[in-house]
Every structure is written in structure tokens, then in C-alpha cells.
């Protein structure tokens, strides 16, 4: 902990909450009755919906601004959630929010569609307000609490919290895009923003490209090493922290939207909307905040040209455009409103008739029920964003269409395009392409509409907002809940271990020596591992072994072991012990079972995105790391049930995002016992991260040392945070073993 002189550290003498969410706005807003009585009501929104149940069950608090300037509110409870209001002045809103957040960061992060403005007083206000949010979060957080910070207005909060409260587990989610380095580098405070974000343990982005842009900016500006999603950030006393930068595409409460859409009164309202619009053959709909990133002018231009060309008529096609007010005191938004309303007026003046209006334009928001009715009424949904982190409107439209009808026209520059591949994808800058897409959507045959919408709905419902929030928090807590560094108790245990005559150092590979990666063949041990292993191999009385669930050939490929390293693969079914040959024997019946096993798993994997099969000498593994949580569970359940009937004698082993089936039973515990016999080890050190490593921990004896890598329940007596700590542990074993040898040599000489 930092000293009490630090205002953040001293702000939390009695923290009380195990989960703290920090966002610019609170999930509640002031409601004033007709008699002037004020009360709080829950704000609509997917983030609130996703986090409410979790926060109630985990004693959570939400830190944010209540929406009214220059007023102080004491913390209070609202519907089971503790609310911690942060006061902002009118001038701070102007400089921190309207200025730096929305006139500097917003346009910069959206590819400079509008020019960002840089003012030092805005930056100073941004720093000041971020510190106030950090102080409130630090005061609300219990020791070791998880703090989840949201969005571009609060990018400095993670570092401020890290410096003051190193005990916290800190996550950050960026709801808007993160720009390529060539654009990001324009920001005068580019290094300060990166440093602020790197205070988090996990930084989430909407798209894979955004996470990549962030990691590249870190490499260019700080030179920190990156590997996959991991960034090694220097920490005090010469150590380093592992920060994960990864994409977690946000979503909606899809089931709630469908439930609304199925209500008879909302379906009746949808019919009424069509009637009020003159019952055109096709209703096209655009729903956006009035923002220059949304491409509203582009869709109006494309529609207007189609009317002018005579390829559409207002009697057949109407465009409904909902443009809810946004940042109305910011200059570019004032100009944008004038531009859009002028374009709407001209188009309506040129093409509307007494009975049919070309564009039904609405510059105000609607309650969710009215929006759902509009979605049901619309035949074509137009999402023409020039740059968008996600665009949840696209997902809302899909969730509402329980009739499986309707066509989504979607910009490829919206994050939603990464998932909603069955939409009609467009480049909104290509007006001719937008026009062609509109005509295609209007003329699309019913069977094609149904096929596309069915696929879109499957994607949205499989990846709903609950899956998003649980995936983020699971990644955050599993990867960051263990304090960095080597515990003193582990150091003491290793010192005792080092005094044994013969030591076996046995190591799992994936997740222990190497970080988990999406493609198993790309796994490589972290820096320093090879040198640490060689130091152990050079010592008398020390043997080193790699114990893996991988096939042994795969283990050899990724680990590139030095001469003298013992190898066991497929949980001990394959071994290579001081000989060049791999030992394995399978009988004919087992080979036949392997063929049947492969047929079932390949069929299941072929029908589920994000899953793949790994072949092993005595079995197969179904990997689900890249699948959604729901799809992964369904695929594993189907495999378990079908193979349980077809091949009831199989050995089934659950791992981290993997389920393995083997025709011959063996565990890492069996492998470790065989290694102990082969080496004649007096004591064993074993390190592993997976549930399959628990079999090895279970066979450890008194005096042995088991090391769990990462969080989660374990039989191991000790743990470290991640693979980056393992070379340090191996080096410590080598140091202590060398010291013991020196002591013995000195005693013999005396």
C-alpha cells in the first residue's frame, strides 16, 4: 500500500464493497413528480441490465455522476445496489465532458471524422475529474476488491487506482473504437492516456482490431514487450505486471427485447405505425444519436438519389429517421443538426406528396416500447455508421424480429459487423454501394430474408449482454486475482526442497510455461524460461520434465526442449524418458474406438463456430476456447452425451475450455508417479494451471511443492499469478540449489 499521504490511499480507511463499477453516469437518474418531489429511477440501458444482478449478489457499488451539475448527493441504495455519486461542476462538465471527452477524444478515436480540438485547460480538467472518480472508487473498494471502470471519459482512473491501491483487481472497458497508431499519435497526451489504461489488469475493447491498435501504440510509445493479448508492464522493484488487452464485443439483453416484441399491444402499435405512414410497401428505419459518426447524411443522400433516379417512389418506400439529441452544446453537433434537417427538408420538399412523406424525421428519443414497435414495423434497418465501437441498434433490431423477417443493412465500420455476417454489409462512403444495398434489401426474396435473420438471431442470442459481462469479469478475476511476485512462503518451501539429494522439477506447458493462445501451435514459453530450465539441467541431482496433455510430437514442437528434459504427452500415455523413442502401445480395439470417437467429435465441432478438434495418440480433445459460452457448453454437453452412449468405456477429462476423451486411461498424476520412479527423485516440484493438473497435485507427498498458476481452487499449496512468474520460480530453485551445493562443498573442504 502507498503511504497515507496519498489522497487515494487515505480515502479508504473502511472500504466495504467487493465489486465496484465506475462510469461517467450512474445507472439512476433524478425523476421529478408533478408536485416537485424528487426521486431516483433506474436508467434504461444494456450495461445496467447486464450488471444489476451481479452487483446485487456480490455486494456491489456503482460510482458515477448523477446527471445534475453543482449538486452533492450522499451515497444511497437503489434497488439493491449501492450508489456512490460524484459531484461535477458546470465548468467541469464543459471542459472535462463536452471539451476533452467529446471534442478531443471522441473525434480522435472515431478516425477524425470531425477534427479534434486540443486545449490544455480541457486536459487539466480531465485529469482533475478522473482523480475525483478514482478517489470515490478507492473509498468504496474493499481490500482485494474488483473495480471495473468504463469508457473513454475515465481513461486515467486505472493508473490512479493502481498507484494508490495495488491490492485491487482493476478492469477497464472501452465502449468506443481505439484508433490506429497514426491517428492516435496526434494526441498531445498520448503517453499519459496509455499509462492510465495500463494501470488495469484487463483492458477490454469492442473489436479485435481495437485491441491490436492499443497494443501497437504501447509498443511504439513505451517499448513494452507484447505477446498475443499480453503486455508486460514494468512494476516497482524491477518486477513486471501482465496486462491483458483483449476484445469483448458488447451486446444487449436479447431475451428482454423479444419479450417486448411479443406483447400484443406493441404488435398493435407496429401495425398502427405502418398505417400512420400510409401503409407503404417498404418502411426503412434509421435509429441513431445525432452524431457525425453515424452516417445519417450518407443514408439520406443515397435514398434521395434513388428517388431522383426514379428507382424508388415515396408511394412505395418511406424512410423513418429517429435522431435523438446528443451533445447539443458542442459546436460540431449544432452544425450537424442544421445539416441533417436541411437535407431532410429539401428531400421532403422535392419528393413528398400530399399522402406520402419521403422521410419521417424525429429529433427526439422514444421509450423502449415505442422503439420495439418501430423495429417491428420496419422492413429494412439501415445502420450506416462511418465508425462505431459496436452499434447496439443493429442487435436490437435482430432481437426484436421474432418473426425472422426484416433485412439489416450494416456498415462494415461498425463493430457489430464482426459478428453479424449475414447482414447486407456496406461501405457507407460508397454511395452507389449503399444505393445498391438498399435496392437489394427491398427486393430480397422471403426465403433469403428468413435464412439471414435466423442466423443473425442465433448470433445475438448466443452472445447476449449477460455472456459479455460474465466473460469479461471471469477473464479479469481468473487472470488478476493472484498478487504478482513470488510469495515468501513459497520461497521458504523451495529452500527446503533444494536440500534433497535428488529433485524432480516437473512442469505443465500450456498456461504454465506459455500463455494460452487461440491457436495451440503458436504457443511458446515466456521469455527467460529456456535459460532457467538450462540452469536446472546443469545442476547435479536435478531432473526437469515437461508434463502435458498435448500429443508428445506437439509438445516437442512448441517447447523445443533441451537435451536432458524428460517428456510426457497425452497425460502420460506417451513418454520419452532418456531415449530417442516415444513409448506408446494401442491394441486393435482401442484404434477402432479412436475412429468412432473422431467421427462423432468432428461432426459436433463442424456445426459449432469457435470449436476445433485436437488429435492425440490415444484420444481426441474438443477445444471450445473461441466459442461463445453458450455454444461451448452445448458442444461439450452433446459430445459427452453422445459418446457416453456410443463408447461408455472412454476416459473423459474436463480442462480449461476443453474436454478430452481417451481410449486409454491415464492422468498427469500417473505421469508424475512414473517420472518419480524413473528419476529416483526424493522430492518433487510440480507447476500447473489447469484442472487436469490437479491429478498431479493430488499425488504429491510431504515435502513436495505444488505450484498453481493463476486463480481458482487447487490442491497446490502455493500459487503465482501467471506464466511470466514461472521463470523467476525456476531461477529461485536453481539459486537455492546452487547455494546448497556450495555449502556442502565448503563443509567437505573443512
UniProtKB/TrEMBL annotation:
Domain of life: Bacteria
UniProt xrefs under CDD domains: GT20_TPS, HAD_TPP
Entry-linked Gene3D superfamilies: Glycogen Phosphorylase B (3.40.50.2000), HAD superfamily/HAD-like (3.40.50.1000), Trehalose-6-phosphate phosphatase related protein, domain 2 (3.30.70.1020)
Signal sequence range: none
Similarity comment: family membership: In the C-terminal section; belongs to the trehalose phosphatase family.
UniProt name for this protein: Bifunctional alpha,alpha-trehalose-phosphate synthase (UDP-forming)/trehalose-phosphatase
Amino acid at each position: 500500500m502507498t503511504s497515507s499521504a496519498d489522497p487515494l490511499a487515505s480515502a479508504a480507511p473502511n472500504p466495504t464493497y467487493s465489486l465496484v463499477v465506475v462510469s461517467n453516469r450512474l445507472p439512476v437518474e433524478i425523476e421529478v413528480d408533478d408536485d416537485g418531489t424528487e426521486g431516483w429511477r433506474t436508467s434504461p440501458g444494456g450495461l445496467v441490465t447486464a450488471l444489476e444482478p451481479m452487483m446485487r449478489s456480490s455486494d456491489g457499488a456503482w460510482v458515477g455522476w448523477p446527471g445534475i451539475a453543482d449538486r452533492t448527493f450522499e451515497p444511497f441504495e437503489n434497488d439493491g445496489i449501492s450508489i456512490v455519486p460524484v459531484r461535477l461542476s458546470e465548468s467541469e462538465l464543459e471542459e472535462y465532458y463536452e471539451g476533452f471527452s467529446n471534442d478531443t477524444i471522441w473525434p480522435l478515436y472515431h478516425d477524425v471524422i470531425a477534427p479534434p480540438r486540443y486545449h490544455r485547460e480541457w486536459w487539466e480538467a480531465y485529469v482533475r475529474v478522473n482523480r475525483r472518480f478514482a478517489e470515490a472508487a478507492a473509498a468504496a473498494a474493499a481490500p482485494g476488491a474488483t473495480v471495473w471502470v468504463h469508457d473513454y471519459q475515465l481513461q486515467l482512473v486505472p493508473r490512479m487506482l493502481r498507484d494508490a491501491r495495488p491490492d485491487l483487481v482493476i478492469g477497464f472497458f472501452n465502449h468506443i473504437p481505439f484508433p490506429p497508431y497514426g491517428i492516435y499519435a496526434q494526441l498531445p497526451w498520448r503517453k499519459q492516456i496509455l499509462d492510465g489504461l495500463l494501470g488495469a489488469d484487463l483492458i477490454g475493447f469492442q473489436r479485435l482490431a481495437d485491441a491490436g491498435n492499443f497494443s501497437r501504440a504501447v509498443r511504439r510509445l513505451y517499448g513494452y514487450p507484447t505477446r498475443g493479448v499480453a503486455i508486460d508492464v514494468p512494476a516497482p522493484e524491477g518486477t513486471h505486471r501482465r496486462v491483458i488487452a483483449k476484445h469483448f464485443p458488447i451486446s444487449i439483453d436479447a431475451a428482454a427485447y423479444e419479450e417486448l416484441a411479443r406483447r400484443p399491444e406493441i404488435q398493435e402499435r407496429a401495425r398502427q405505425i405502418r398505417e400512420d405512414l400510409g401503409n407503404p410497401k417498404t418502411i426503412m428505419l434509421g435509429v441513431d444519436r445525432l452524431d457525425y459518426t453515424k452516417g445519417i447524411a450518407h443514408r439520406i443522400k443515397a435514398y434521395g438519389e434513388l428517388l431522383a433516379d426514379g428507382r424508388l417512389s415515396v408511394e412505395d418506400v418511406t424512410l423513418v429517421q429517429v435522431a435523438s439529441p446528443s451533445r447539443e452544446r458542442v459546436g460540431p453537433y449544432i452544425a450537424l443538426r442544421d445539416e441533417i434537417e436541411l437535407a431532410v427538408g429539401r428531400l421532403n420538399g422535392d419528393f413528398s406528396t400530399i399522402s406520402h412523406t419521403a422521410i419521417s424525421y424525429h429529433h427526439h428519443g422514444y421509450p423502449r416500447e415505442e422503439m420495439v414497435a418501430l423495429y417491428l414495423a420496419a422492413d429494412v434497418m439501415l445502420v450506416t455508421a462511418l465508425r462505431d465501437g459496436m452499434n447496439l441498434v443493429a442487435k436490437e433490431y435482430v432481437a426484436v424480429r421474432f418473426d425472422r423477417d426484416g433485412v439489416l443493412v450494416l456498415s462494415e465500420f461498425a463493430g457489430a459487423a464482426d459478428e453479424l455476417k449475414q447482414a447486407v454489409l456496406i461501405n457507407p462512403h460508397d454511395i452507389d454501394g449503399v444505393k445498391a444495398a438498399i435496392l437489394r434489401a427491398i427486393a430480397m426474396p422471403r426465403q433469403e430474408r428468413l435464412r439471414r435473420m435466423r442466423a443473425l438471431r442465433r448470433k445475438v442470442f448466443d452472445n447476449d449482454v449477460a455472456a459479455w459481462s460474465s466473460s469479461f469479469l471471469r477473464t479479469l478475476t481468473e487472470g488478476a486475482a493472484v498478487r504478482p511476485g513470488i510469495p515468501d512462503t513459497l520461497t521458504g518451501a523451495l529452500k527446503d526442497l533444494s536440500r534433497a539429494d535428488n529433485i524432480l522439477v516437473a512442469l505443465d506447458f500450456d498456461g504454465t510455461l506459455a500463455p494460452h493462445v487461440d491457436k495451440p501451435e503458436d504457443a511458446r514459453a515466456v521469455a527467460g524460461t529456456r535459460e532457467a530450465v538450462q540452469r536446472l539441467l546443469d545442476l547435479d541431482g536435478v531432473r526437469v520434465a515437461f508434463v502435458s496433455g498435448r500429443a508428445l510430437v506437439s509438445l516437442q514442437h512448441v517447447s523445443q526442449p533441451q537435451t536432458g528434459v524428460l517428456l510426457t504427452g497425452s497425460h502420460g500415455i506417451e513418454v520419452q524418458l532418456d531415449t530417442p523413442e516415444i513409448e506408446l502401445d494401442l491394441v486393435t480395439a482401442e484404434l477402432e474406438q479412436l475412429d468412432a470417437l473422431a467421427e462423432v467429435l468432428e461432426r459436433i465441432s463442424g456445426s459449432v463456430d469457435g470449436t476445433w478438434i485436437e488429435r492425440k495418440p490415444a484420444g481426441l480433445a474438443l477445444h471450445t476456447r473461441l466459442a461463445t459460452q453458450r455454444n461451448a457448453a452445448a458442444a461439450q454437453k452433446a459430445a459427452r452425451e453422445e459418446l457416453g452412449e456410443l463408447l461408455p468405456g472412454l476416459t473423459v477429462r474436463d480442462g480449461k475450455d476443453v474436454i478430452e476423451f481417451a481410449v486409454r486411461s491415464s492422468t498427469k498424476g500417473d505421469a508424475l508417479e512414473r517420472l518419480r520412479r524413473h528419476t529416483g527423485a526424493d522430492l518433487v516440484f510440480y507447476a500447473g494451471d489447469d484442472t487436469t493438473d490437479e491429478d498431479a497435485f493430488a499425488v504429491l507427498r510431504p515435502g513436495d511443492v505444488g505450484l498453481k498458476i493463476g486463480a481458482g481452487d487447487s490442491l497446490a499449496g502455493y500459487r503465482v499469478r501467471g506464466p511470466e512468474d514461472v521463470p523467476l520460480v525456476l531461477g529461485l530453485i536453481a539459486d537455492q540449489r546452487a547455494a546448497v551445493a556450495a555449502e556442502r562443498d565448503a563443509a567437505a573442504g573443512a
